[in-house]
From TrEMBL:
Gene3D superfamilies, alphabetized: Immunoglobulins
Quaternary structure annotation from Swiss-Prot or TrEMBL: Predominantly monomer of isoform CD22-beta. Also found as heterodimer of isoform CD22-beta and a shorter isoform. Interacts with PTPN6/SHP-1, LYN, SYK, PIK3R1/PIK3R2 and PLCG1 upon phosphorylation. Interacts with GRB2, INPP5D and SHC1 upon phosphorylation. May form a complex with INPP5D/SHIP, GRB2 and SHC1.
Protein name: B-cell receptor CD22
SUPFAM superfamilies: Immunoglobulin (SSF48726)
Amino acid sequence: MALRKAGSVLVVFFWSVAVVLGQDGWSVTYTPQSICALKGSTVHLTCSYTYPSGTVTSIFWFTKMETGVKPEDLCQDPEYAGRLEYHGDKEKDCTLRIKDLRERDSSTYLFRLLTDQEGGTYTGSPGVKLSVTDLQVKVTGGHQDKTLTCITTCTLTDNPTFIWYKNGQRLDEPTSQQYSVNSYYSDSYSCAVEGHEDHHSPAVCVRGESCFNVTYTHQSICALKGSTVDISCFYTHPSWHNVTEVSWFSKWESGVTKDLSQDSEYTSRVEYHRQTEKDSTLRITDLRVSDSTEYKFRFTTNEARWGYSFPGTTLTVTGLQVKVTGGHQNKTLTCITTCTLTDNPTYIWYKNGQHLDESTSPQYKDPVYSNYVDSYSCAVKGHEDLHSPAVCVRGESCMNVTYTHQSICALKGSTVDISCFYTHPSWHNVTEVSWFNKWESGVTKDLSQDSEYTSRVEYHRQTEKDSTMRITDLRVSDSTEYKFRFTTNEARWGYSFPGTTLTVTGLQVKVTGGHQNKTLTCITTCTLTDNPTYIWYKNGQHLDESTSPQYKDPVSSNYEDSYSCAVKGHEDLHSPAVCVQGQSCKRVTYTKRRICVLKGSTVDISCTYVGYVTSSLWFSPKRNASWTNKLTPEDLTRDPGYAGRVEYAGRESGTYKSPFTLRITDLGEEDSAEYRFTFKTYNFEWGHSFPGTTLSVTGLQVKVTPAAEGQKTLTCSTTCTLTDNPTYIWYKNGQHLDEPTSQQYSVNSYYSDSYSCAVEGHEDHHSPAVCIRGESCFNVTYTHQSICALKGSTVDISCFYTHPSWHNVTEVSWFNKWESGVTKDLSQDSEYTSRVEYHQQTEKYSTLRITDLRDSDSTEYKFRFTTNEARWGYSFPGTTLTVTGFQVKVTGGNQDKTLTCITTCTLTDNPTYIWYKNGQHLDESTSPQYKDPVYSNYEDSYSCAVKGHEDLHSPAVCVQGQSCKRVTYTKRRICVLKGSTVDISCTYVGYDTVTSSLWFSPKQSASWTNKLTPEDLTRNPGYAGRVEYAGRESGTYKGPFTLRITDLREEDSAEYRFTFKTYNFEWGHSFPGTTLSVTGLEVKVTPAAEGQKTLTCSTTCTLTDNPTFIWYKNGQRLDEPTSQQYSVNSYYSDSYSCAVEGHEDHHSPAVCVRGENCLNVTYTHQSICALKGSTVDISCFYTHPSWHNITEVSWFNKWESGVTKDLRQVSEYTSRVEYHRQREKDSTLRITDLRESDSTEYKFRFTTNEARWGYNFPGTTLTVTGFQVKVTGGHQDKTLTCITTCTLTDNPTYIWFKNGQLLDESTSPQYKYSASSNHENSYSCGVKGHEELHSPAVYAPKNTSVSVSPSGEIVEGSSVTLTCSSDANPPVDKYTWYKKNVASPKASGQSYSITNIISEDRGDYYCEAENTIASMNSTALMIIVAVKQTSVMTAAVGIIVVVLVLILCLSGLMCFRRPTGGSDATADTQSVRPDCNSDTSPDYDTLASVHPDPNSDPNSDMYTPLNMKTRSPEYDTLANVRGLYH
């Protein structure tokens, strides 16, 4: 660059010898005496001097010498400011260097020195004459040929080499002062001297004024950093050319330049201006040191381009610095720059930040006294804000503030740091620092106390002597000057000195260009600090390729496209989207870019959009980790973190332009995020990367800062600036203060007072209270201001509290009802008794636990504590509890449905959701919105729950209609008393016919054959004899079904589920059912008022159905109390017990109100079930006052009017009763050989020397039972259950017998076997240890037979009754009658009567006897019906009878003669032929050989039996009836 050669000097020597001028030892030698130098160059005025004696005290150069006027040092002349350098010394060298020569520098320069001797002043005459010239091109010659001469106003000697330029291009060949050329209209020429190429002549046209030429107004400019500069030129071109484009540039490579208006470093800082047709001005604002370079102008015509290589204007950007020179006492201050400022400015000086009016030169006019405290700074008029840093005159200990930036340009909504560092004398101590922007008459206001800035301003420091003010959420109104002030113990500093000027701007997209192509520029009202990188969006989508403030490519004029810009790091502060053409482009405009709201409140985030929308949604990029596809945003309504808290308002599908609002309720700090809106049309989707609205959620905190003596300033602070400028509310000791409504409040500092703040309209979201002084004030701080919990679940409401250290806490309680300062302790409230517990982790921490939550529990809960001096906690807001259940909301079209698990409030702690389909747990979805669209199926039902509370699921709902399969439990949780009976019910709907159903408990899965296949509870040995079903109807479409469990035990506490099957469906096993809790009763004794006790009948769960309680005193029932609590006097002898109405036999153990010395009997068992014939022990232990002596003990079971009889004296028990004891106060009654008549209640009585005890209090109820085997099951498989009339105590091991033999494999009360096995087996059961007391055996029917009445001949028209007999256990429960060869049964019942019999009724009859085990057929009975005949017929009959008798006799003979082992009759006759050894009637024997058996051996000596199917009709006349055995 030419600038780098500025140090070279071109001079002409008029004399070749030095001029030595002097006298009497004084001399000054100038070498040379005359110099001619180029304008803009640098010259050295070389000289040396001598003096006779003494010490040189002062030396300087000057140009003006008038008689009687003291010469003025050139260093004090503002014309030379920054351009003079003295290279000499105070010995002999006096050389002066002058830079950036100007024509007005032409003058004679003289040197003057002064010594400490008398008359020691000398001026060297005649000095050095300096002439300053520039270069001009002179054109001479004819019409065609021209001679160009590079002329100066003085002659440059030393034979310099000249350089010539044609049309701005350097010509290599000419090096002389003249150059001959042809005259051509378009050519321009310029000259320079080698080594000074930057100081060339103006270009001239060879012919006329129409050549190509650019002439710059200044060849160099020096301007202040931060200021604005205008670089100008004028240009010419042939008249037939038309200019098409102009630009300025500072960088070029190989003829390629970049327009500064397109350069990201200059965008928004560069403007082009023009006053005439052929001039141009480049204006650069907010100058930076990096802007120092050469700037050139280029223009393009329709035929040529001009301006590449010709030297332009060199800009140097400088700051101001104060240079301190001089001795120890007096100092000289000079305002220096790195270049000589253009236009000879007027200087301004500041002392200690105060403007000094008297000095206007770059050198402070008066010597400055070296004072440690004083600091100085300089500036130039018109640029006071661009002053130099202040400097200390002496050392680094003066009072001074230096700002890091004199001006800052920042985006609206962003955060800015305005910094400074300061100094002060070391013996000063800083007492206060502040920033301010308003001051009147020296009075300033600390910004941290300014309501416009409160919560937006923070002060930071990194070292002891720096300060940074951070302003967040910048507003346009924040644009002003900010200053820093510090106060020491001796001074205050910082009022008038210029500070940092902040300008706040937004972004706008400026559209320029023609009809087709547009240029987009991201503009601001000031130049953004720190040269940011720009970001561009098209239709909401981030465009990666462009990072400059001007979009890099021309944009096509498309009516649909919209564009927006932002800067990196502030994407959320983007410009509004603008249409390239018209106003109908698709775009989204957010109502607010940033919103700050209170934790727990509700916010509306809104936008307007343009487009014919088919679908739209809101989403948060913060939640992308949970999206199925990280590139595809998911609707916020489906996000589990927002379940039940998000809703949309204003959406209208198909709307062209509409507002759309996202509402989020119950805000948490984790909701702080950016929220974006996107929409789709038929062929367009708004980009997902377009920044939306940033939400900040904050709580309130009270910040305490010192103020005046004894005062404190309270500030209700937030982590962000609340939107909409709210009104504040203040509380003192929990009481609302009416007067203050601002964010700050001044108070007296008093130990006991606490303060809290809130915002109007959000009083329930107040800040924690703080103590004004220390931690000893009265205060309660709740962990949560609001809680949302599930109905039926348990909730913990916590707080911590403080009090003055000299107070002692005497009582704590929680309450939710108060009137006129009167509260009721929840632990004493009947609605909460047994459901409320108080816990504490530390001395000043309390937790209220409420179990089995109900809807009615929804209210505000507060904590109260009492000390020995005060009571606290009434009026301050507590914790608001909301109790909710689940509901499944079904939305969507006709085909696909969306399921959402909704609650009336937002559940605390962001739970994980669970979904069930047809009772089966679905693993894949954990959000409150079921993840996939659900097909509209009439059969499917869905339910939801949250992890950890599966039993509190929503009711199952149908996706379509109301006919889906589902199970609904009547109660989700049941709490009942040990020993009682419970009904667990549900209703169910089966779309098809229900084929089977059962109840089961997952707790029992370890005993299932297949862990995945539930087993019917009726088959579980742990429930043997205690479980039954009610309401089941196989095939029922919809019906209730009840599980009844008797004699409940604590181990029965479990979850119980119902499942059913249809022909093609099974209800899922994982669907939560009813949770049963079994509890006993306990009396809990707590202190109350003086001499009083509060008794609470407590349980481990809350009893269902709000029962009425019964109280006993010393075993006597008390009529008046029916609540769970009872207040009594504490008296030694009294004992108390409680029960529940309807369950008096399941009372609690009695307790002594005071100590263990009351009269009391406690039975080990309230009920016992024992086997008939076994032995039982009934035990108790008892207490009495220590001063009583036992005189008698006894057991009894009958009493009348207080009179009892000792069982040992009762004849029924004599020899079967024994009394035993193991220690002093226990007793056991042993009864042997138990009988069913022993079933009754047994009580213990003891007598002391002062009292008798034990009459009325419930004792132990004994039930004596035997075993029975119950048979159930289908046709093939049978289940045997060993049942008793009560549940045997101590859960015995069961044993089974088959045909009297012990079966080793089964030890449960149920035994299964296949009905296809032998029906002749019998089964019985018992228990281990009592094998001899087994049940009667059960077996299938046997010895089944038929008898007939009346006996004898059956004649037509008469009646006959057949009776079936069988031996069976269980007894036969079904008799069926059959006639052979007839398909259907004839009758049922044990007897079968045939009246008015006719011949068609003849045949073989048999019966089937059936019990629950099997069935058995009897032998067949043949009925022969005789026909009524005439007398002839009667005679014939007589003859036949005789013949038959003869035949029978012959048959008898044959029986004795035949061999044994004859075959049976055919199967279909069921052995109609009688066996010879049978007891068959002789009458039948006569018929034995009427017809031979065709299958018999013809050689056999045997007669064929009569086959009733093959006999001839004539046998019908032989109407006699006998039994035909099989």
